[in-house]
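For the sake of transparency, this paper describes our internal protein records without simplification. Such a record has a labelled line for the sequence and another for the backbone structure tokens. Nothing more is needed to write down the fold, since each code stands for a local backbone conformation. For reference, a complete record is included directly beneath this paragraph.
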Amino acid sequence: MTETKPGADAPRIAPDPRPDAVMPTVPAIEREERAEDLEPGDAVDGPIAVSAEVPETIEATIDFSEVELADEFSEPELAVTPGGLLPMEPSPIEGRLRKAPLRVPDELEECGGFTLFGRRIKSLLYTTDVAVIRNSNADAIFAVYPFTAQPAITQALLTASEAPVFVGVGGGTTTGKRAVQLAAVSEMQGAAGVVVNSPAPPEMIEQICAIIDIPVIATVVRCDAIAHAKVKAGAKILNVAAGKDTPAVLRELREAYPNLPLIASGGRSSLSVRETVQAGANAVIWTPPSAQQLQADMMRRYREAEVKPEVPVMDPVAAADVNPLESARADVPIPDELIAKATTSGRKRPRPLPLFFKGKRR
């Protein structure tokens, strides 16, 4: 027999008055009352209904992308060697004298880079100074200068550089057949690519691409029909030189050419470099300080390091005339040799007689 509790939808089993009766168990799933329907202070007469279905497999994943690990947990892995525990990553190799004192900013590592003949390029050094080129760690050299391109200059840059060199072949003052011939000679000398200035027409780029196998870097100042024509003519890389509008031009070109390598100048501040990278640049052109600026800074440090010595320099001639008894302690016995030397040091020794006076007595 059952009785219904007022206000309850589910029936409740009444207790059996017999002493030997066994109370039946009521499954929890039969109760349909939900926990969110209960008001604060209400008594719960029985278990709340829950789902009895359990999945066969439970997969749990943890995302550690935004978790900052402590230093003791982020240390490099160690390897057991005959010399003890050594880090798995090999240490960088540096010379005692031959180093790379001119290093590109760390923000350039944020670039995705592009691959050229199997080499990853993220940073390009904008200079033609062979001393700066030789002492830098840039991935490539962007050798463009405001003069007529000459094979002798290209050969000097290629001889001094250990990184790939992109050389300028004209496009502004030098155009037409001469620029095409300079591009061919540059490839034969060993250049990794040729750079043409923004005034170069698409027809000249097409002629250069027809005779050389290295990539042509076309300089553009805006995302317009001319830029699109240069890409169709065969330009493999676009160099964006739009000044303060460089980030905006990069975004437009990136929307039009998702897979085309784009390079641009990142300015001199870390903020401008990040802005250039976020706008879509694959590699950043960095302008290093000149050798004259580096030399002036080095001489300033040398002058600041030249300070006067704090301890006065001892004069050996004046120190020889000091009486050793004046600096002696009262409780220390003075040797007889020092006493004899001090008492006889003030007397004048007689000068020896000349040789012709020896043996003559008056």
About this structure: The longest helix spans residues 291-305. The mean pLDDT is 78.
